[in-house]
Design a protein that fits this description.
binds 4'-deoxy-4'-aminopyridoxal-5'-phosphate; 11 strands; alpha/beta; single chain; four-stranded antiparallel β-sheet
Length: 347
């Protein structure tokens, strides 16, 4: 593997990062803060938050079985995706490789950062071959993106292929596990200590029911995390978010319960969706959504919008012609969807 130093963009390697007021004083019990030009009134939220979110990382580290130094927290996992490009990919020179179809932000971030984005189609069963991704890579490939369970296809990627890619690729393998809590597969976070080229992304937006607080996680070697910390905005995770995340971490049973209810609902909804006359195929899912091929995705999508029900039309996405992506809702919401779709069959 190339070293993290070799993989890092030269300007980032040499960067002198911004040093915030709260970074500079450490370890002393202080009570008078006249260092950050804050307003001393309006208690609770008048002070800048901890730039490195120590308390939250301590709690997360225990739960995930990693060291706090192996965690980066950001404004959604979208922030970590963007930082990966800004840290490692030289615009107009470097490139990344990704499975296709997958989560759209990898390509958007590549385009914003002027980094070539090389897509390698999944097979008909939405699996990938590591060798096909490696064949698309060259000496300017810094990152390879995988997503498991994958969005929009919903399936877990094959672990043997993931392992093979981690063994053979000399850059960073980014494995997006946004939906891992719904899957029967273990997270790759457990492999961090023996995989120096692995970056695992997770989020509070899915199983943790907290898309609104914008909190994403990246797990990687301390060396990679140090690069993220060097270039992130100083106070990228606000105080309200840090507090809310700590509250959530104190009730993990609640999240476990949501996951088991949603997985049960998913099975039921998929079965009923498969029985609708216009459904051609319901793809297997390991996430809190599923992809289904229907006779006319556009017509069904528009009909549902007219009923005030919004699903995702994935017709224009590679390999997803006439496919709708349906998020599993509450039992009541799922019934409203099915009821509306049964009526559509009468048209
Ligand atoms: N990764 C995947 C695979 C996603 O589907 C999404 C959101 N739809 C994200 C990351 C973004 O998550 P966040 O809300 O943490 O930015």
């Amino acid at each position: 593997m190339r070293t993290i130093e070799q993989l890092t963009r030269p300007n980032i390697r040499g960067l002198k990062p911004y040093s915030s007021a709260r970074d500079e004083y450490k370890g002393i019990e202080a009570s008078v803060f006249l260092d950050a030009n804050e307003n001393p009134y309006s208690p609770s939220y008048n002070r800048y938050p901890d730039p490195l979110q120590h308390q939250l990382k301590e709690r997360l580290a225990k739960m995930k079985g990693v060291d706090p130094g192996q965690i980066f927290l950001g404004n959604g996992s979208d922030e970590a995706i963007d930082l990966l490009f800004r840290a490692f990919c030289e615009p107009a020179v470097d490139n990344v490789v990704a499975i296709d179809p997958t989560y759209g932000m990898y390509q958007v971030c590549a385009d914003i950062n002027d980094v070539a984005y090389r897509k390698v189609w999944l097979d008909a069963d939405f699996q990938f071959r590591a060798d096909a991704l490696l064949a698309a890579a060259d000496e300017h490939t810094k990152l390879i993106f995988l997503c498991s369970p994958n969005n929009p296809t919903g399936n877990d990627l094959c672990r043997e292929e993931i392992d093979h890619l981690l063994d053979k690729f000399d850059g960073l393998v980014v494995l997006d596990e946004a939906y891992i809590d719904f899957s029967g597969q273990p997270s790759y976070v457990g492999q961090l200590n023996r995989r120096p080229n692995l970056v695992v992304l997770q989020t509070f937006s899915k199983a943790w029911g907290s898309a609104a607080i914008r909190l994403g996680m990246a797990f990687a070697s301390p060396e990679i995390i140090a690069v993220f910390n060097k270039i992130k905005y100083p106070y990228n995770v606000n105080q309200l978010t840090q507090e809310q995340a700590l509250r959530l971490l104190s009730e993990p049973e609640k999240i476990q319960n949501w996951v088991s209810v949603l997985n049960k609902e998913r099975r039921q909804l998929m079965e009923r969706f498969a029985a609708l006359p216009f459904t051609e195929y319901v793809f297997p899912s390991d996430a809190n959504f599923f992809l289904a091929r229907v006779s006319d995705a556009e017509a069904i999508y528009n009909y549902l919008v007219g009923q005030g029900i919004i699903v995702r039309n994935r017709h224009s996405v590679s390999l997803c012609g006439n496919c709708l992506r349906i998020t599993v809702g509450t039992s009541e919401e799922n019934n409203i969807l099915l009821e509306a779709l049964r009526k559509f069959t009468m048209y």
